[in-house]
Amino acid sequence: MTLTLPALPYATDALMPHMSPETFEYHHGKHHQAYVDNGNKLIAGSEFEGKSEIEIITSSFGKNPGVFNNAAQVYNHTFFWNSMKPSGGGAMPGALESKIKESFGSMDEFRTAFVQGGMTQFGSGWVWLVLKDGKLEIMKTPNAENPLVHGATPIVTCDVWEHAYYIDYRNARPKFLESFVDNLVNWEFAEANLSAA
Ligand code: MN3
Question: Could you please report the per-residue DSSP string of 50-113?
Answer without folding.
Answer: TS-HHHHHHHHTTT-HHHHHHHHHHHHHHHHHHTB-TT-SS---HHHHHHHHHHHSSHHHHHHH
